[in-house]
Design a protein that fits this description.
With about 325 residues, this protein is an alpha/beta fold. The protein is about 40% helix and about 15% strand. The N and C termini lie far apart (about 55 Å).
Length: about 325
């Protein structure tokens, strides 16, 4: 089985992982409809950064997954749906939890109802390792208890349970993919790697300001995560309504991660703790380490990009962004 000629809808295609998945699906020969959140800036998010040869093959659509009628019309006549649209910023979820429920839970419900109504061949719903909270055992397999340690993670738990319920109640062919921390080009500075690299390279930053450096994370490069989504969409041996971890199965302390980034960027900037970057004490997830055995057995997926290789690719991308910004500033000055 391949994606060649398959009609595929990607929600959240304008985001970090969504743009990489969209790019990979186009490269695989799929007919892709890419949903970006509606805005008044004529922007399709990170899709605008894709090569023109890729963009011209896309059916670009703007909309909102909270609109059930819109979602139903959009899902119609697609073979596969990859549902990545979500509110993901954990800090903001402390201030606006209702918006996370409306987007992450009700939005997912709208997609599930549409897939059920139109008989879509398969739906892949995006979960997150944050649903596990601080590890009670490591490595973390799919039997680990779910812990809502932030409004964001609670909303994703709700979305996961809704997907499970639709598989059990209505036979909806839905797979729940649970990526652990993903990193790479196009990622927001909200994420730890992006903010460290940006501060290390930015000449206007005299230091690198971070929150808790003792936490541990399992990091997967974004092209590997995109490959996990594609594997979940085609594999014969996945069980509908079940969650699957997709992680590198190696954890690293944030402090050690900073040391590697400083080495790769040749930066000697000091590290300064920043209390504004700390989560509430009972909300911080201390450690995440994936057990992806179940997913590997079902699909054959394994990560290909090492941590250092992925960090170097991400650093190279940030360098290009800084260079492009400097060129724009010089052009504006001349103009």
């Amino acid at each position: 089985m391949t994606y060649l000629g398959a009609k595929i809808l990607v929600t959240g295609a304008d985001g970090f992982i969504g743009s990489h998945l969209t790019e990979a699906l186009v490269a695989a020969g799929a007919d892709v409809t890419a949903l970006a959140q509606y805005n008044s800036f004529d922007s399709h998010g990170w899709l605008d950064d894709l090569p023109q040869s890729t963009r011209q093959k896309l059916n670009l659509v703007r909309g909102d997954i909270r609109d059930a009628a819109f979602v139903s019309r959009l899902v119609h006549d697609h073979h596969y749906v990859f549902h990545l649209a979500a509110l993901i910023a954990i800090p903001y979820s402390y201030f606006a939890p209702q918006s996370y429920v409306e987007t992450n839970v009700l939005g997912t419900l709208n997609v599930l109802e549409a897939v059920r109504q139109h008989g879509t061949e398969r739906l892949v719903v995006t979960s997150t390792s944050e649903v596990y909270g601080t590890a009670l055992k490591m490595p973390i397999d799919e039997t680990h208890p779910l812990q809502g340690q932030s409004p964001y993670s609670a909303s994703k738990i709700g979305a996961d349970m809704m997907a499970e319920a639709f598989a059990r109640s209505f036979g909806v062919p839905v797979v729940i993919l649970r990526p652990f921390n993903t990193f790479g080009p196009r990622q927001s500075e909200r994420a730890i790697i992006g903010t460290i690299i940006r501060q290390a390279l930015d000449q206007e930053c005299d230091a690198i300001r971070v929150g808790d450096t003792t936490t541990e994370r399992d990091l997967t490069f974004v092209t590997d995560t995109a490959a996990a989504f594609m594997a979940a969409g085609l594999a014969d041996d996945v069980e509908y309504g079940h969650a699957y971890n997709a992680g590198n199965q190696r954890a690293i302390a944030i402090g050690d991660l900073i040391d590697i980034i400083l080495e790769l960027t040749s930066s000697r900037k000091p590290i300064i703790p920043d209390e504004k970057r700390l989560r509430p004490i009972n909300s911080e997830v201390r450690a995440l380490l994936a057990d992806s055995t179940k997913f590997a057995r079902a699909t054959g997926w394994t990560p290909k990009v090492t941590l250092r290789e992925g960090l170097q690719r991400t650093i190279d991308w940030w360098r290009k962004r800084f260079s492009a910004t400097q060129v724009r500033r010089q052009t504006d000055f001349i103009t």
